[in-house]
Amino acid sequence: MRRRRSLVGYVFLLPWLAGFFGLTLGPAMASLYLSFTSYDLIGTPGWIGLDNYVRILTADSKVADSVHVTLLYVAMSVPLKLGFALAIALILNKGIMGLSLYRALFYLPSLLGASVAIATLWRRVFAGDGLVNHVLLQFGIEGPSWVSDPNTALYTLVALSVWQFGSPMIIFLAGLRQLPQDLYEAASIDGATKRQQFWRITLPMLTPVIFFNMVVQTIDAFKAFTPAFIVSGGSGGPINATLFYTLYLYQEAFGYLRMGYAAALAWLLVLTIVAVTAVAFVTQRLWVHYDE
Amino acid sequence: MSRRASRATIDRSRRPWHRTLGFHILLCLCSLVMLYPLLWMFASSVRPNADIFQSISLWPAHWDFSAYPRGWSGLQISFGQFFWNSLIISVLSVTGNVISCSLAAYAVSRLHFPGRNLCFGLMLGTLMIPYQVTLVPQYILFLNLDWVNSFLPLVVPKFMAVDAFFIFLLTQFFRGLPRELDEAAVMDGCSPLRIYWSIILPLSTPALATAAIFTFIFTWDDFFGPLIYLTDIENFTVQLGLRGFLDSAGQSDWSAMFAMAVLTLLPVLALFLFFQRLLIQGIATTGLKR
Asked: Given an 8 Å threshold on Cβ–Cβ distance, is B242 in contact with A117?
């Protein structure tokens, strides 16, 4: 009886086991192997040792560009997005009427933002003769051609990301609901001002949620692909200004069929994400307060 | 004032009316800025091309729906085919995800077997792995199976519970169901399969619905998968069709481009309108990133 029991669990896990070994672990190992080879889908992969990694780290100027662009994107979009999300969540948490309507409206862009439709809209809205410049013109400002100017193209993608602040906002709102109300009552009896309550109670108590949102959004920003692809027409242009690392990886793999090189790029992306996450987890004890 | 009054009511009653009004004005302005591009896109789809870039207003001078039929047949294949393809892929993905992820979640939340915690740990571990790592070998695998340019590479993995996030979501829910149910059922001689099918699944419709809706939306919006696996235009999803449109007619016929863009957003909008509570709850309780 017990024996049969123990097997039954694995019967239910069969689909997952097949996927885990066949589509996740197996391919991950294969991609590690491929990253030490030169392979163009024809013939067999040829072992070239560390050549791919050496070239990525020292000799490929497009890698340098794409790393620069991706880091800038992460560094700008994540804090702005979380800042907006937190600010709006704090206002909505003040017992405002129509909370669920506002919440739904602010969440909508998060749900639609990943689609090609929104990316094409963005390309049009930030074009030289696009909506943004028409609005600016009402105030007498002549804007640049945002998407085709290398100095501003990346900002349009940052704006697209910040526009989708709705989902971290919902998580912040859920976190704010969890805060114990008796702390606020005690604080106001002791004469703490609203401002003091915010800095001494709300913000410290919310740090676990801020941390969670920060990690999730950072990983997500590293992986962003569709907006850059559509806004730049797949090129990462103008002059590599929107060449996200993932976009360059795609070009190497499916544009030039350099599969070994792309696998090496992918593994460096994983290492970066793991390193950033590890740093976040190690440094959290400096600023994240967990309930005992 | 009662001491037990919630903080929200304390806040509201103590706050001067002009601050409340200020918050509403701020929030309305913010909503307007956020929704403006979406509304403008719709307005542009019912405007003649000549008017689009002259106007920032959201109310067209005259309504002209001719861009919709024009866009529908703007490529050599009608958008109807793209919608059909997207629908098939999305429905199959939903089916696959709900079945395979609920099976796995049932195993790790309700059954006892050696290695259970290890399996759950591995599931959580796969959440962290970016898809780029498995991308190239998976592509080579599907190429060798001769699956490229069919729906199979997009759909079959869903039947193998590769979206570990949904296993996690369902596991959390299943764990909340009372254990006595299983125990009573075992007394009555129910097999684990029977318990899964007749007890756990019927009690979990909110969680299953959340998983189904998110899977549908993610699949519908997915661009990268179709981009690498679908090459013939007959197999294109709406996202690929839209991108094809942008590259060809889109540059000259923006009304038609926006008309099709609006249509591709409609299914997601409809799901949002009907299941808003479920979606928002799903995010609030699991921290889903979209």
From this structure: yes
Question: Measured between alpha carbons, how far is residue B173 from residues A213, B108, B269, B286 in Å?
Answer: 22, 12, 26, 10
Neighbours of A231 (CB within 10 A): 23
A203 domain residue, yes or no: yes
Q: Where are the domains of chain B?
A: 7-64, 72-286
Q: What is the pLDDT of residues B244-259, one digit of tens each?
A: 888 876 567 888 889 9
- Residue B271: C-alpha distances to residues A102, A179, B3, B165, B209 (Å): 18, 31, 41, 20, 11
Structure-block tokens of residue B217? 């939306």
When divided into structural domains, chain A yields a total of 1
Disruptive mutation site among B39, B133, B197, B231 for chain A (greatest number of A CBs within 10 Å) = B133
Q: Could you say which of B34, B123, B265 has the minimum Cβ distance to residue A117?
A: B265
Using CA atoms, how far apart are residues A131 and B44, in angstroms rounded to an integer? 11
- pTM for the whole thing? 0.90
Please report how the helices B254-286 and A116-125 are oriented relative to each other, as an axis angle in degrees rounded to 10.
120
The residues, ordered by sequence, that sit 6+ positions from A274 with a Cβ below 8 Å of its Cβ are B128
Does an H or E element contain B183, and which?
A: helix B179-187
**Which fold does the domain B72-286 belong to in CATH?**
MetI-like fold (1.10.3720)
| A5 within a domain of the structure (yes/no) | no
**Nearest residue in A to B10, CA atom:** A95
Residue A167's CATH number: 1.10.3720.10
Q: Which residues on B lie below 8 Å from A120 (Cβ)?
A: 242-243, 246, 250, 257, 261
Helix (H, G, I), strand (E, B) or coil at A46: strand
Instruction: Evaluate whether residue A276 is within a structural domain.
Output: yes
pLDDT in tens, B131-167: 889 999 999 999 999 999 999 999 999 999 998 889 9
